[in-house]
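Re: Re: token formats

Sure, here are both.
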Amino acid sequence: MRDPKQLAARVSAARQAVEARGETFYPGASRIHLAAFPPKERWDDWVEVDARTPDRRERHYMLVPTTCFNCESACGLLAYVDRDGLEVRKLEGNPEHPGSRGRNCAKGPATLNQVNDPERILYPLRRVGPRGGGQWERITWDQALDDIGGRIRKALVEGRQKEVMYHLGRPGHELVYLQRVFHAWGIDGHNSHTNVCSASARAGYAFWHGMDRPSPDHANAVLEMTRHRLVGFQQLRITEHGV
């Protein structure tokens, strides 16, 4: 265990050194600072050396705050936008985000693969020909919304609510707004991200002891390990019954 006074002195010295340069001090897991994160004072023109070029060419970026939507945590990201071509080159954590504070799992930086995916669908497509024929035509967003809205309305008017199914992610589900709208229409065909997220864990619980994510026995637990999705760190806590 480090001497608390010695640690406090190191943190204070590190903060003074960073702030003396007119830059923001970001406390990190090391209790000193997150030196890998660019200070926000230089986000408008952040310079990095391209290690892949023999002449150590400089790359100038604009760092644009954004949000990761690969799960419901919505952690903060910084998009490194090339100042010359205005292309997003990479995504890293945003130390200014009040929840994630610069920490991200692997899905955050991997968002770049979605941006650059050559098979990414950039506009609405409507099937033409038989189902499974692989034939599509490009349409406008207004055409897509009018088509889908018209089909839903026709089904409701004709009393065919069970033929309508809606899909939404966990943030929309937790906010309940869309769920209330569809329930008001008499629609109960709900699908969510559970199919690709918690379904496997819940199935494991069910196969193991016939329960769906039971609450832990906190009072008698020896060791509790939790991960807070908004803070982005793992915490170990020995309970009063611990050894």
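Second one below.
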Amino acid sequence: MQRLEVVSKFFLALASSVFLFICGLSLPPLGVVVLPFVAQPVLMFGVKYGVAGGFGVLFVAVVLLLLFATEELAFAYGIFALMVGLLLSLLGRVRAIENLLASVAAAVLTMTASLSLYFYGSWGAMIGDFRDTLTQQLASAIRVQEKMGLPQDSLQMFKERTPQIVELMLQLLPALLLLSFAFIALINILYLGRRFPERRSEWFALQHLREWKGPEPLVWGLIACGFALFVPGLAAVRFVAMNLLVVIGACYFAQGLAVIAFFFHKNKVPRFLRGMTYVLIIFQQIFTLLVIGLGLFDLWGDFRRLRKNNLTPSQAS
């Protein structure tokens, strides 16, 4: 009976993961919501029935896509398979959540870049295709906004700046992809933590994300990248510095959110007000920048008083 249960759960995890993957690719608007959870069924099976079983699900899924779909789909699923494999292997071994996310995201980004180069044949062809795709997506967004009756002045300005926006997005593409992979991994491990609460202490050094703070030496990277932007005649250095600044800014944004979440929890702020605050932070640039500044100055201000007797935020509250 137990073997039958394991087999049934195996095929359920396989079918769920492949179904989410196909749906996410077939329905692009839905893909933003669906694709981050492609890894979740396999992760849950691997945690509950063993890492070897999780790898088995991934192997069968890739083979099925190779046999009954296309090579491109199989390789694309392989990106999620790599993420799942790394998470199953590193959970409990790398307990600092920032190190776990950085390791997984960097490995997945490397694999994505390698596969893209393999299919396109050259970086120039890949960047050209990405440029055309981004231009088409922005043009479609403008047409939708025109139908919604938005002011023509702002739309015209947006049209004129489309080439500059596309080039900026291409320059920041490595950082954006790295952060996207890290965010997907974060969503999955947080859901695993809720599904298996008894294993949180085994997996993570922190009980809650509101206890998180970035590594203190990160500020030196921020300073160095800021100066590197003003070095004339070194395009490669500027490219690297811009991407590192985006990643470091995201880290301080996360720390700022942790500070806000800490005080929300400490003062028992209603969930509705918390939700409204987070919506403002995400959709209003001024609030986003304020949260990044809050995270940065928490390095010196220690707003949660975490350094007092080396207490964790939960103990300090």
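The longest helix spans residues 235-266. The CA atoms of residues 138 and 218 lie 34 Å apart.
- S.
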